[in-house]
TrEMBL record:
Taxonomic path: Bacteria, Pseudomonadati, Bacteroidota, Sphingobacteriia, Sphingobacteriales
Keywords for this protein: Magnesium, Metal-binding, Phosphoprotein, Signal, Zinc
Active-site residues (renumbered): 359 (phosphoserine intermediate)
Signal sequence extent: 1-28
Protein name stated in the entry: Alkaline phosphatase
Binding site for Mg(2+): 318, 410, 412, 518
Family annotation (Pfam families): Alk_phosphatase (PF00245)
Cofactor note: Binds 2 Zn(2+) ions.
Family named by the database record: Belongs to the alkaline phosphatase family.
GO terms of biological process kind: lipid metabolic process
Annotated positions binding Zn(2+): 318, 523, 527, 565-566
Length: 632
Protein backbone atom coordinates (compact mmCIF):
# COMPACT_ATOMS: atom_id res chain seq x y z
CA UNK A 1 0.00 0.00 0.00
CA UNK A 2 3.05 2.26 -0.22
CA UNK A 3 4.39 3.53 -3.52
CA UNK A 4 7.53 1.39 -3.37
CA UNK A 5 8.25 -0.83 -6.35
CA UNK A 6 6.08 -3.87 -5.86
CA UNK A 7 8.84 -6.17 -4.67
CA UNK A 8 9.55 -3.74 -1.80
CA UNK A 9 5.94 -3.18 -0.76
CA UNK A 10 5.17 -3.64 2.94
CA UNK A 11 1.62 -4.36 3.93
CA UNK A 12 0.05 -1.73 6.18
CA UNK A 13 -3.37 -2.81 7.32
CA UNK A 14 -5.14 0.52 7.63
CA UNK A 15 -8.47 1.60 6.25
CA UNK A 16 -7.42 5.24 6.19
CA UNK A 17 -8.81 7.78 6.98
CA UNK A 18 -12.00 7.77 9.00
CA UNK A 19 -11.47 9.22 12.48
CA UNK A 20 -13.83 10.12 15.26
CA UNK A 21 -13.59 13.28 17.28
CA UNK A 22 -14.40 13.09 20.96
CA UNK A 23 -14.77 16.84 21.13
CA UNK A 24 -14.35 19.74 18.76
CA UNK A 25 -12.03 21.71 21.02
CA UNK A 26 -9.68 21.13 23.92
CA UNK A 27 -11.51 22.47 26.95
CA UNK A 28 -13.58 24.70 24.64
CA UNK A 29 -10.57 26.50 23.19
CA UNK A 30 -9.52 26.93 19.60
CA UNK A 31 -5.96 26.19 18.50
CA UNK A 32 -5.26 29.92 18.44
CA UNK A 33 -6.55 30.39 21.99
CA UNK A 34 -4.52 27.43 23.21
CA UNK A 35 -1.37 28.89 21.65
CA UNK A 36 -1.92 32.32 23.22
CA UNK A 37 -2.36 30.68 26.60
CA UNK A 38 0.83 28.64 26.17
CA UNK A 39 2.84 31.62 25.00
CA UNK A 40 1.86 34.12 27.65
CA UNK A 41 0.34 32.28 30.61
CA UNK A 42 2.56 31.28 33.52
CA UNK A 43 0.00 29.08 35.24
CA UNK A 44 1.56 26.78 37.77
CA UNK A 45 1.27 23.06 37.38
CA UNK A 46 0.78 21.07 40.54
CA UNK A 47 4.09 20.10 42.09
CA UNK A 48 4.05 16.91 44.14
CA UNK A 49 7.80 16.83 44.84
CA UNK A 50 8.90 17.02 48.48
CA UNK A 51 11.05 20.12 48.79
CA UNK A 52 10.75 23.73 49.92
CA UNK A 53 12.99 26.78 50.17
CA UNK A 54 14.95 28.12 53.14
CA UNK A 55 16.31 31.68 53.13
CA UNK A 56 19.70 31.41 54.82
CA UNK A 57 21.11 34.45 56.70
CA UNK A 58 18.02 36.31 55.55
CA UNK A 59 18.87 39.49 57.45
CA UNK A 60 21.59 40.21 54.87
CA UNK A 61 18.97 40.66 52.16
CA UNK A 62 18.29 44.25 51.02
CA UNK A 63 14.85 43.87 52.57
CA UNK A 64 15.07 41.32 55.39
CA UNK A 65 12.05 39.02 55.67
CA UNK A 66 10.08 40.66 52.83
CA UNK A 67 12.47 39.59 50.05
CA UNK A 68 12.23 35.98 51.17
CA UNK A 69 8.53 36.08 52.04
CA UNK A 70 7.42 37.45 48.68
CA UNK A 71 9.76 35.01 46.94
CA UNK A 72 7.72 32.23 48.55
CA UNK A 73 10.36 31.03 51.01
CA UNK A 74 8.62 28.93 53.64
CA UNK A 75 11.59 28.91 56.01
CA UNK A 76 13.43 32.10 56.95
CA UNK A 77 16.53 32.31 59.11
CA UNK A 78 17.77 35.08 61.40
CA UNK A 79 20.88 35.12 63.60
CA UNK A 80 20.07 36.59 67.01
CA UNK A 81 22.12 38.03 69.90
CA UNK A 82 20.86 39.10 73.34
CA UNK A 83 22.12 42.60 74.09
CA UNK A 84 20.94 44.74 77.00
CA UNK A 85 17.79 42.65 77.33
CA UNK A 86 16.84 43.02 73.63
CA UNK A 87 16.96 40.42 70.84
CA UNK A 88 19.15 41.81 68.06
CA UNK A 89 19.54 40.43 64.55
CA UNK A 90 23.11 40.27 63.22
CA UNK A 91 25.73 37.79 62.07
CA UNK A 92 28.44 39.25 64.30
CA UNK A 93 28.24 41.51 67.32
CA UNK A 94 29.94 44.42 65.58
CA UNK A 95 27.07 44.47 63.05
CA UNK A 96 24.40 45.14 65.67
CA UNK A 97 22.43 48.35 65.22
CA UNK A 98 19.65 49.49 67.52
CA UNK A 99 16.82 49.35 64.96
CA UNK A 100 17.55 45.78 63.79
CA UNK A 101 15.67 43.91 66.47
CA UNK A 102 14.01 40.56 65.99
CA UNK A 103 10.68 42.16 66.73
CA UNK A 104 11.13 44.95 64.15
CA UNK A 105 12.56 42.86 61.34
CA UNK A 106 10.61 39.63 61.73
CA UNK A 107 8.02 39.18 64.47
CA UNK A 108 5.95 42.32 63.83
CA UNK A 109 5.92 41.92 60.00
CA UNK A 110 4.98 38.25 60.34
CA UNK A 111 2.17 39.03 62.78
CA UNK A 112 0.78 41.79 60.56
CA UNK A 113 0.72 39.58 57.47
CA UNK A 114 -0.78 36.74 59.48
CA UNK A 115 -3.72 38.94 60.42
CA UNK A 116 -4.09 40.28 56.86
CA UNK A 117 -4.22 36.72 55.52
CA UNK A 118 -7.07 35.76 57.84
CA UNK A 119 -5.06 33.66 60.26
CA UNK A 120 -2.56 32.17 57.83
CA UNK A 121 1.09 32.87 57.09
CA UNK A 122 0.41 33.24 53.37
CA UNK A 123 -2.59 34.18 51.28
CA UNK A 124 -2.37 30.61 49.99
CA UNK A 125 -3.56 28.86 53.14
CA UNK A 126 -1.94 25.58 52.10
CA UNK A 127 1.52 27.10 52.59
CA UNK A 128 3.17 27.17 56.01
CA UNK A 129 5.95 29.36 57.38
CA UNK A 130 8.72 28.77 59.89
CA UNK A 131 11.25 31.17 61.40
CA UNK A 132 14.58 29.58 62.20
CA UNK A 133 16.23 31.54 65.01
CA UNK A 134 19.99 30.90 65.00
CA UNK A 135 21.04 31.76 68.55
CA UNK A 136 24.60 33.04 68.38
CA UNK A 137 25.48 32.62 72.04
CA UNK A 138 24.16 31.88 75.55
CA UNK A 139 20.83 30.25 74.74
CA UNK A 140 20.04 29.86 78.45
CA UNK A 141 19.81 33.64 78.82
CA UNK A 142 18.30 34.33 75.39
CA UNK A 143 15.51 31.74 75.13
CA UNK A 144 13.43 32.97 78.11
CA UNK A 145 13.41 36.48 76.60
CA UNK A 146 12.44 35.04 73.19
CA UNK A 147 9.65 32.92 74.68
CA UNK A 148 8.20 35.93 76.48
CA UNK A 149 8.21 37.99 73.28
CA UNK A 150 6.57 35.21 71.27
CA UNK A 151 3.84 34.68 73.87
CA UNK A 152 2.93 38.36 73.63
CA UNK A 153 1.59 37.66 70.11
CA UNK A 154 -0.96 35.16 71.37
CA UNK A 155 -1.37 31.90 69.43
CA UNK A 156 0.34 33.16 66.24
CA UNK A 157 3.57 31.35 67.12
CA UNK A 158 2.05 28.48 69.08
CA UNK A 159 1.40 25.39 66.89
CA UNK A 160 0.16 23.44 69.92
CA UNK A 161 -2.79 25.81 70.26
CA UNK A 162 -3.06 26.86 66.63
CA UNK A 163 -2.58 24.46 63.67
CA UNK A 164 -1.99 27.45 61.39
CA UNK A 165 0.70 28.99 63.56
CA UNK A 166 4.14 30.07 62.34
CA UNK A 167 6.68 27.63 63.73
CA UNK A 168 9.66 28.95 65.68
CA UNK A 169 12.74 26.74 65.44
CA UNK A 170 15.88 27.24 67.49
CA UNK A 171 19.26 26.55 65.90
CA UNK A 172 22.85 27.47 66.70
CA UNK A 173 23.43 27.66 70.45
CA UNK A 174 20.75 25.37 71.88
CA UNK A 175 20.31 22.45 74.25
CA UNK A 176 20.85 18.86 73.22
CA UNK A 177 17.70 16.75 72.84
CA UNK A 178 17.51 15.79 76.50
CA UNK A 179 17.17 19.50 77.34
CA UNK A 180 14.30 20.26 74.97
CA UNK A 181 11.74 19.39 77.63
CA UNK A 182 12.84 22.38 79.68
CA UNK A 183 11.11 24.63 77.16
CA UNK A 184 7.48 24.97 76.06
CA UNK A 185 6.31 22.15 73.81
CA UNK A 186 5.47 24.63 71.04
CA UNK A 187 9.11 25.76 70.83
CA UNK A 188 10.89 23.57 68.29
CA UNK A 189 14.55 22.81 67.66
CA UNK A 190 16.92 22.17 64.79
CA UNK A 191 18.44 18.71 65.20
CA UNK A 192 21.76 17.22 64.23
CA UNK A 193 22.58 13.96 62.48
CA UNK A 194 24.56 12.41 65.35
CA UNK A 195 22.14 13.23 68.14
CA UNK A 196 19.98 10.60 69.79
CA UNK A 197 16.29 11.33 70.26
CA UNK A 198 13.60 9.85 72.43
CA UNK A 199 9.91 10.27 71.68
CA UNK A 200 9.66 13.45 73.71
CA UNK A 201 12.65 15.23 72.16
CA UNK A 202 11.70 14.03 68.69
CA UNK A 203 8.31 15.74 69.09
CA UNK A 204 10.14 19.06 69.56
CA UNK A 205 12.53 18.54 66.63
CA UNK A 206 11.45 20.30 63.45
CA UNK A 207 14.24 19.28 61.07
CA UNK A 208 17.77 17.90 60.84
CA UNK A 209 20.49 20.23 59.56
CA UNK A 210 24.12 19.61 58.65
CA UNK A 211 26.92 21.71 57.21
CA UNK A 212 27.83 20.60 53.71
CA UNK A 213 31.53 21.17 54.51
CA UNK A 214 31.38 18.34 57.06
CA UNK A 215 30.80 15.95 54.15
CA UNK A 216 32.45 17.43 51.07
CA UNK A 217 34.30 20.44 49.70
CA UNK A 218 31.94 20.44 46.72
CA UNK A 219 31.92 23.71 44.77
CA UNK A 220 28.45 23.10 43.37
CA UNK A 221 29.69 21.92 39.99
CA UNK A 222 29.47 18.34 38.81
CA UNK A 223 28.99 15.74 41.52
CA UNK A 224 30.38 16.06 45.05
CA UNK A 225 32.66 13.50 46.54
CA UNK A 226 31.26 11.49 49.47
CA UNK A 227 27.75 11.32 48.05
CA UNK A 228 27.22 8.18 50.13
CA UNK A 229 27.97 10.09 53.33
CA UNK A 230 25.51 12.79 52.35
CA UNK A 231 22.89 10.16 51.58
CA UNK A 232 23.39 8.55 54.99
CA UNK A 233 22.75 11.91 56.68
CA UNK A 234 19.57 12.41 54.69
CA UNK A 235 18.51 8.83 55.44
CA UNK A 236 18.91 9.50 59.17
CA UNK A 237 16.43 12.36 58.95
CA UNK A 238 14.09 10.23 56.83
CA UNK A 239 14.18 7.46 59.44
CA UNK A 240 13.04 9.96 62.05
CA UNK A 241 10.32 11.37 59.81
CA UNK A 242 12.04 14.76 59.68
CA UNK A 243 12.94 17.03 56.76
CA UNK A 244 16.63 17.58 56.07
CA UNK A 245 18.72 20.66 55.26
CA UNK A 246 22.34 21.16 54.23
CA UNK A 247 23.63 24.65 55.01
CA UNK A 248 26.67 26.23 53.40
CA UNK A 249 25.70 24.88 49.97
CA UNK A 250 26.47 26.70 46.75
CA UNK A 251 23.63 28.55 45.08
CA UNK A 252 22.73 27.63 41.52
CA UNK A 253 20.49 25.34 39.46
CA UNK A 254 22.87 22.39 39.44
CA UNK A 255 23.34 22.48 43.22
CA UNK A 256 19.62 22.87 43.88
CA UNK A 257 18.76 20.07 41.49
CA UNK A 258 21.33 17.71 42.99
CA UNK A 259 19.99 18.34 46.50
CA UNK A 260 16.40 17.79 45.38
CA UNK A 261 17.37 14.55 43.65
CA UNK A 262 19.06 13.34 46.83
CA UNK A 263 15.90 13.91 48.86
CA UNK A 264 16.88 17.12 50.68
CA UNK A 265 13.67 18.88 51.70
CA UNK A 266 14.83 22.34 52.74
CA UNK A 267 16.86 23.83 49.87
CA UNK A 268 19.20 26.36 51.43
CA UNK A 269 19.75 29.64 49.57
CA UNK A 270 21.10 33.17 49.83
CA UNK A 271 19.32 33.99 46.53
CA UNK A 272 15.62 33.59 47.32
CA UNK A 273 14.39 35.28 44.13
CA UNK A 274 16.50 33.04 41.90
CA UNK A 275 15.48 29.93 43.82
CA UNK A 276 11.83 30.99 43.62
CA UNK A 277 12.01 31.02 39.82
CA UNK A 278 13.80 27.67 39.75
CA UNK A 279 11.28 25.95 42.01
CA UNK A 280 8.27 27.48 40.29
CA UNK A 281 9.53 26.12 36.99
CA UNK A 282 10.35 22.71 38.44
CA UNK A 283 6.98 21.09 37.55
CA UNK A 284 7.13 22.34 33.96
CA UNK A 285 10.84 21.67 33.63
CA UNK A 286 10.93 18.12 35.03
CA UNK A 287 9.90 14.89 33.37
CA UNK A 288 9.70 11.32 34.65
CA UNK A 289 8.93 8.57 32.16
CA UNK A 290 6.29 5.99 33.05
CA UNK A 291 7.40 3.66 30.28
CA UNK A 292 9.79 3.67 27.35
CA UNK A 293 8.69 3.82 23.74
CA UNK A 294 10.20 1.23 21.36
CA UNK A 295 12.61 2.53 18.75
CA UNK A 296 13.83 1.16 15.44
CA UNK A 297 17.42 0.22 14.60
CA UNK A 298 17.85 0.61 10.84
CA UNK A 299 19.73 -1.97 8.80
CA UNK A 300 21.72 0.63 6.77
CA UNK A 301 21.48 -1.74 3.80
CA UNK A 302 20.60 1.06 1.40
CA UNK A 303 21.72 4.04 3.48
CA UNK A 304 24.00 6.44 1.67
CA UNK A 305 23.74 4.75 -1.71
CA UNK A 306 24.43 7.18 -4.55
CA UNK A 307 21.17 6.64 -6.42
CA UNK A 308 18.41 9.15 -7.15
CA UNK A 309 15.78 9.51 -4.45
CA UNK A 310 12.31 8.90 -5.83
CA UNK A 311 10.40 9.00 -2.58
CA UNK A 312 11.27 11.78 -0.13
CA UNK A 313 9.84 12.11 3.37
CA UNK A 314 10.76 15.43 5.00
CA UNK A 315 9.80 15.42 8.70
CA UNK A 316 10.01 18.80 10.42
CA UNK A 317 9.88 19.11 14.18
CA UNK A 318 8.80 22.74 14.54
CA UNK A 319 10.93 24.35 17.25
CA UNK A 320 12.91 21.13 17.82
CA UNK A 321 16.41 22.12 18.87
CA UNK A 322 19.26 19.87 19.91
CA UNK A 323 18.20 19.94 23.56
CA UNK A 324 14.65 18.86 22.71
CA UNK A 325 16.13 15.82 21.00
CA UNK A 326 18.48 15.17 23.93
CA UNK A 327 15.67 15.51 26.49
CA UNK A 328 13.43 13.10 24.59
CA UNK A 329 16.26 10.61 24.21
CA UNK A 330 17.07 10.70 27.91
CA UNK A 331 13.39 10.39 28.80
CA UNK A 332 13.11 7.34 26.55
CA UNK A 333 15.84 5.31 28.19
CA UNK A 334 18.60 6.81 26.06
CA UNK A 335 17.10 5.71 22.74
CA UNK A 336 15.53 7.49 19.78
CA UNK A 337 15.04 6.27 16.25
CA UNK A 338 16.09 9.61 14.78
CA UNK A 339 19.46 9.48 16.55
CA UNK A 340 20.05 6.02 15.07
CA UNK A 341 20.50 7.71 11.69
CA UNK A 342 24.19 7.98 10.79
CA UNK A 343 24.13 10.91 8.39
CA UNK A 344 23.74 13.97 10.59
CA UNK A 345 24.22 17.69 10.20
CA UNK A 346 23.58 21.05 11.81
CA UNK A 347 21.45 23.75 10.23
CA UNK A 348 21.85 27.49 10.84
CA UNK A 349 18.48 29.18 10.99
CA UNK A 350 19.03 32.96 10.64
CA UNK A 351 16.32 35.00 8.90
CA UNK A 352 17.09 37.71 6.36
CA UNK A 353 16.28 40.62 8.66
CA UNK A 354 17.35 39.13 12.00
CA UNK A 355 19.39 36.22 13.27
CA UNK A 356 16.51 35.01 15.45
CA UNK A 357 14.16 33.41 12.94
CA UNK A 358 10.52 32.50 13.20
CA UNK A 359 8.72 29.58 11.56
CA UNK A 360 7.81 31.65 8.52
CA UNK A 361 11.36 32.63 7.64
CA UNK A 362 12.88 29.37 8.84
CA UNK A 363 10.36 27.25 6.98
CA UNK A 364 10.63 29.40 3.85
CA UNK A 365 14.39 28.90 3.74
CA UNK A 366 13.94 25.12 3.86
CA UNK A 367 11.09 25.11 1.37
CA UNK A 368 12.43 27.60 -1.19
CA UNK A 369 16.19 27.75 -0.68
CA UNK A 370 16.06 31.49 -0.18
CA UNK A 371 16.22 33.68 2.90
CA UNK A 372 13.31 35.92 3.76
CA UNK A 373 12.18 38.20 6.58
CA UNK A 374 10.47 36.98 9.68
CA UNK A 375 6.69 36.65 9.23
CA UNK A 376 7.06 36.28 5.43
CA UNK A 377 5.79 33.10 3.74
CA UNK A 378 7.84 31.91 0.73
CA UNK A 379 8.49 35.37 -0.70
CA UNK A 380 11.71 37.32 -1.09
CA UNK A 381 12.48 40.62 0.63
CA UNK A 382 10.39 42.44 -2.01
CA UNK A 383 7.37 40.18 -1.61
CA UNK A 384 7.96 38.21 -4.81
CA UNK A 385 6.74 34.58 -4.57
CA UNK A 386 9.42 31.88 -4.39
CA UNK A 387 8.59 28.37 -5.56
CA UNK A 388 8.84 25.61 -2.98
CA UNK A 389 10.58 22.29 -3.40
CA UNK A 390 7.17 20.61 -3.24
CA UNK A 391 5.73 22.71 -6.06
CA UNK A 392 8.92 22.39 -8.11
CA UNK A 393 8.85 18.60 -7.85
CA UNK A 394 5.13 18.66 -8.68
CA UNK A 395 5.99 20.44 -11.94
CA UNK A 396 8.39 17.57 -12.67
CA UNK A 397 5.63 15.01 -12.30
CA UNK A 398 6.02 14.12 -8.62
CA UNK A 399 3.04 13.57 -6.34
CA UNK A 400 3.10 15.73 -3.21
CA UNK A 401 1.50 16.08 0.21
CA UNK A 402 1.81 18.50 3.13
CA UNK A 403 0.79 17.36 6.64
CA UNK A 404 0.75 19.10 10.03
CA UNK A 405 -0.40 18.39 13.57
CA UNK A 406 -1.19 22.11 13.88
CA UNK A 407 -3.23 24.60 11.86
CA UNK A 408 -2.72 23.73 8.19
CA UNK A 409 -2.36 27.45 7.37
CA UNK A 410 0.31 28.02 10.00
CA UNK A 411 3.74 29.07 8.81
CA UNK A 412 5.60 25.78 8.41
CA UNK A 413 3.06 23.96 6.24
CA UNK A 414 2.07 27.18 4.44
CA UNK A 415 5.57 27.87 3.10
CA UNK A 416 5.28 24.81 0.87
CA UNK A 417 2.10 25.96 -0.92
CA UNK A 418 1.48 29.64 -0.11
CA UNK A 419 3.04 33.07 -0.58
CA UNK A 420 2.48 36.21 1.48
CA UNK A 421 4.45 38.87 3.31
CA UNK A 422 2.39 38.22 6.47
CA UNK A 423 2.06 34.77 8.01
CA UNK A 424 -1.23 35.58 9.75
CA UNK A 425 -3.12 35.95 6.46
CA UNK A 426 -4.51 32.44 6.81
CA UNK A 427 -7.34 32.66 4.27
CA UNK A 428 -5.14 34.29 1.64
CA UNK A 429 -2.49 31.63 2.13
CA UNK A 430 -4.93 28.78 1.65
CA UNK A 431 -6.23 30.51 -1.46
CA UNK A 432 -2.76 29.89 -2.94
CA UNK A 433 -3.16 26.13 -2.61
CA UNK A 434 -4.97 25.48 -5.93
CA UNK A 435 -2.05 27.05 -7.86
CA UNK A 436 0.65 25.20 -5.87
CA UNK A 437 0.32 21.91 -7.73
CA UNK A 438 0.40 20.05 -4.43
CA UNK A 439 -1.97 17.09 -4.23
CA UNK A 440 -2.86 16.65 -0.56
CA UNK A 441 -3.08 19.02 2.40
CA UNK A 442 -3.84 17.56 5.85
CA UNK A 443 -3.87 19.48 9.13
CA UNK A 444 -5.75 21.39 11.79
CA UNK A 445 -8.72 23.55 10.86
CA UNK A 446 -8.11 27.33 10.78
CA UNK A 447 -10.57 29.29 12.90
CA UNK A 448 -12.15 31.13 9.95
CA UNK A 449 -12.95 27.80 8.26
CA UNK A 450 -14.91 26.78 11.34
CA UNK A 451 -16.90 30.02 11.34
CA UNK A 452 -17.47 30.33 7.60
CA UNK A 453 -20.21 27.81 6.91
CA UNK A 454 -20.28 28.85 3.24
CA UNK A 455 -16.69 27.74 2.65
CA UNK A 456 -16.87 24.81 0.22
CA UNK A 457 -13.27 24.70 -0.91
CA UNK A 458 -12.05 25.26 -4.44
CA UNK A 459 -13.13 24.06 -7.90
CA UNK A 460 -12.15 20.42 -8.34
CA UNK A 461 -10.47 20.38 -4.90
CA UNK A 462 -12.79 18.85 -2.30
CA UNK A 463 -12.45 19.82 1.35
CA UNK A 464 -13.28 17.11 3.87
CA UNK A 465 -13.19 16.75 7.62
CA UNK A 466 -11.02 13.97 9.05
CA UNK A 467 -11.38 11.82 5.92
CA UNK A 468 -8.94 11.42 3.04
CA UNK A 469 -11.08 10.64 0.01
CA UNK A 470 -9.95 7.83 -2.26
CA UNK A 471 -11.80 9.24 -5.26
CA UNK A 472 -10.02 12.62 -5.40
CA UNK A 473 -6.46 13.23 -6.53
CA UNK A 474 -6.19 16.75 -5.05
CA UNK A 475 -7.85 17.52 -1.75
CA UNK A 476 -7.71 19.27 1.62
CA UNK A 477 -8.43 17.42 4.86
CA UNK A 478 -9.25 19.55 7.90
CA UNK A 479 -8.64 17.71 11.16
CA UNK A 480 -10.91 18.36 14.14
CA UNK A 481 -9.34 20.05 17.17
CA UNK A 482 -9.66 16.83 19.15
CA UNK A 483 -7.28 15.21 16.65
CA UNK A 484 -4.70 17.95 17.00
CA UNK A 485 -4.72 18.31 20.78
CA UNK A 486 -1.36 17.77 22.54
CA UNK A 487 -0.17 14.19 22.97
CA UNK A 488 -0.13 14.75 26.73
CA UNK A 489 -3.85 15.56 26.50
CA UNK A 490 -4.71 12.39 24.62
CA UNK A 491 -3.84 12.86 20.95
CA UNK A 492 -3.19 9.56 19.21
CA UNK A 493 -0.71 8.92 16.39
CA UNK A 494 -2.41 11.28 13.94
CA UNK A 495 0.92 12.32 12.38
CA UNK A 496 1.84 8.74 11.60
CA UNK A 497 -1.64 7.81 10.39
CA UNK A 498 -1.85 10.91 8.20
CA UNK A 499 1.53 10.12 6.69
CA UNK A 500 0.61 6.49 6.05
CA UNK A 501 -2.66 7.58 4.49
CA UNK A 502 -0.91 10.07 2.21
CA UNK A 503 1.66 7.46 1.14
CA UNK A 504 -1.10 4.96 0.40
CA UNK A 505 -3.04 7.52 -1.63
CA UNK A 506 -0.09 8.91 -3.59
CA UNK A 507 1.39 5.52 -4.37
CA UNK A 508 -1.58 4.60 -6.58
CA UNK A 509 -0.11 6.86 -9.27
CA UNK A 510 3.15 4.89 -9.34
CA UNK A 511 5.11 8.13 -9.53
CA UNK A 512 7.82 9.62 -7.33
CA UNK A 513 6.45 11.49 -4.33
CA UNK A 514 7.47 14.14 -1.83
CA UNK A 515 5.78 14.51 1.56
CA UNK A 516 6.46 17.10 4.24
CA UNK A 517 5.04 16.09 7.63
CA UNK A 518 5.29 18.61 10.45
CA UNK A 519 5.21 17.88 14.17
CA UNK A 520 3.92 21.36 14.99
CA UNK A 521 3.57 21.28 18.75
CA UNK A 522 7.18 20.84 19.81
CA UNK A 523 7.22 24.56 19.11
CA UNK A 524 4.16 25.14 21.29
CA UNK A 525 5.91 23.29 24.11
CA UNK A 526 8.95 25.53 23.83
CA UNK A 527 6.76 28.63 24.02
CA UNK A 528 5.07 27.13 27.08
CA UNK A 529 8.41 26.18 28.69
CA UNK A 530 6.87 22.76 29.33
CA UNK A 531 9.30 19.85 29.08
CA UNK A 532 6.59 17.18 29.36
CA UNK A 533 4.83 18.73 26.38
CA UNK A 534 8.12 18.89 24.47
CA UNK A 535 9.17 15.32 25.20
CA UNK A 536 5.81 13.74 24.42
CA UNK A 537 5.57 15.63 21.12
CA UNK A 538 9.15 14.74 20.18
CA UNK A 539 8.53 11.09 21.00
CA UNK A 540 5.40 11.19 18.86
CA UNK A 541 7.55 12.45 15.99
CA UNK A 542 10.10 9.74 16.71
CA UNK A 543 7.42 7.07 16.55
CA UNK A 544 6.72 8.29 13.02
CA UNK A 545 10.47 8.24 12.32
CA UNK A 546 10.58 4.58 13.38
CA UNK A 547 7.98 3.67 10.81
CA UNK A 548 9.50 5.62 7.94
CA UNK A 549 12.93 4.12 8.64
CA UNK A 550 11.35 0.70 8.25
CA UNK A 551 9.96 1.86 4.92
CA UNK A 552 13.37 3.16 3.85
CA UNK A 553 15.00 -0.17 4.74
CA UNK A 554 12.56 -1.79 2.30
CA UNK A 555 12.99 0.84 -0.42
CA UNK A 556 16.47 1.70 -1.81
CA UNK A 557 15.06 4.82 -3.51
CA UNK A 558 13.62 6.45 -0.39
CA UNK A 559 15.21 9.41 1.41
CA UNK A 560 14.16 10.37 4.94
CA UNK A 561 15.09 13.77 6.42
CA UNK A 562 14.29 14.82 9.99
CA UNK A 563 15.04 18.43 10.89
CA UNK A 564 13.60 21.63 12.40
CA UNK A 565 12.90 25.18 11.28
CA UNK A 566 14.34 26.76 14.44
CA UNK A 567 14.67 26.16 18.19
CA UNK A 568 12.07 27.40 20.66
CA UNK A 569 12.41 28.06 24.39
CA UNK A 570 16.18 28.08 24.79
CA UNK A 571 16.02 24.67 26.45
CA UNK A 572 19.10 23.40 28.31
CA UNK A 573 19.24 19.90 29.75
CA UNK A 574 20.54 20.37 33.29
CA UNK A 575 20.36 16.76 34.38
CA UNK A 576 19.04 13.42 33.19
CA UNK A 577 19.02 9.75 34.13
CA UNK A 578 18.61 7.43 31.14
CA UNK A 579 17.95 4.41 33.33
CA UNK A 580 15.02 6.06 35.08
CA UNK A 581 13.82 8.23 32.20
CA UNK A 582 14.19 11.34 34.34
CA UNK A 583 14.98 14.75 32.86
CA UNK A 584 15.35 18.26 34.29
CA UNK A 585 15.76 21.17 31.92
CA UNK A 586 15.88 24.93 32.12
CA UNK A 587 14.38 27.38 29.63
CA UNK A 588 15.95 30.74 28.87
CA UNK A 589 13.11 32.13 26.73
CA UNK A 590 9.48 31.63 25.79
CA UNK A 591 10.26 32.46 22.18
CA UNK A 592 12.46 31.34 19.31
CA UNK A 593 16.25 31.31 19.65
CA UNK A 594 19.22 31.36 17.27
CA UNK A 595 20.52 27.87 18.12
CA UNK A 596 21.61 25.29 15.60
CA UNK A 597 19.00 22.66 14.80
CA UNK A 598 19.72 19.03 13.91
CA UNK A 599 19.43 17.39 10.52
CA UNK A 600 19.14 13.59 10.41
CA UNK A 601 19.18 11.78 7.07
CA UNK A 602 18.69 8.17 6.00
CA UNK A 603 18.45 6.33 2.72
CA UNK A 604 19.30 7.33 -0.83
CA UNK A 605 22.01 10.02 -0.91
CA UNK A 606 21.71 10.69 2.80
CA UNK A 607 25.39 11.70 2.74
CA UNK A 608 24.38 15.03 1.19
CA UNK A 609 23.00 16.21 4.54
CA UNK A 610 26.15 15.81 6.62
CA UNK A 611 28.04 18.82 7.96
CA UNK A 612 27.16 22.33 9.06
CA UNK A 613 25.30 24.54 6.62
CA UNK A 614 22.66 27.22 6.17
CA UNK A 615 19.03 26.15 6.29
CA UNK A 616 18.63 27.22 2.66
CA UNK A 617 20.91 24.32 1.71
CA UNK A 618 18.23 21.81 2.71
CA UNK A 619 16.24 22.87 -0.36
CA UNK A 620 19.24 22.46 -2.68
CA UNK A 621 20.26 19.15 -1.16
CA UNK A 622 16.74 17.77 -1.59
CA UNK A 623 16.80 18.65 -5.28
CA UNK A 624 20.31 17.29 -5.68
CA UNK A 625 19.16 14.02 -4.14
CA UNK A 626 16.73 13.58 -7.05
CA UNK A 627 19.29 14.10 -9.85
CA UNK A 628 19.74 11.17 -12.20
CA UNK A 629 23.55 11.33 -12.42
CA UNK A 630 25.90 10.46 -9.57
CA UNK A 631 26.46 13.35 -7.18
CA UNK A 632 29.38 12.25 -5.04
Amino acid sequence: MTSFPRKYIRAYACAFFIMTAASSTVQGQSLEQQFEKLMFSREQQQDTHAYAAHSHNDYWQPQPFFTAYYAGMQSIEADVFLQDGELMVAHDKHEITKERTLRNLYLDPVAKLYQQNGGHAFRDSSKKLQLLIDVKENYRALLPILIKQLESYGPIFNPVQNPNAIKIIISGSRPRPEGFKEYPSWLLFDGEVDWTYDDSSLAQTALISAGISDYTDWNGKGLPDNVEGMQRAIAKADSLGLPFRFYGTHDGPNSWLFLINQGVYWINTDQPKALEIFLKEQPRASFQAKQFQPTYQPSFQHDGADRPAKRILLLIGDGMGLSAVKAAKAANGGKLSMTNMRATGLSQTEALNTDNTDSAAGGSAIATGRKTNNRAIAVDENGNPQISVASLLSQKGWKTAIISTGDITDATPAVFYGHHIERNESRALLDNFPQSGIDILIGGTPSWAKRDTTFKGYPNIPVTKNILRSDADRQIVFLADSLTRPVKDGRKDILLQSLKGAITHLSHAQKPYFIMAESAQIDYAGHANDVTYSITETLDLDMTVSEVLKMADADPEMLVIVTADHETGGMTVLDSDYRKGRVRVQFSSNDHTNDFVPVFAYGARSFLFQGVYDNTEVFHKLLKATEQQEVK
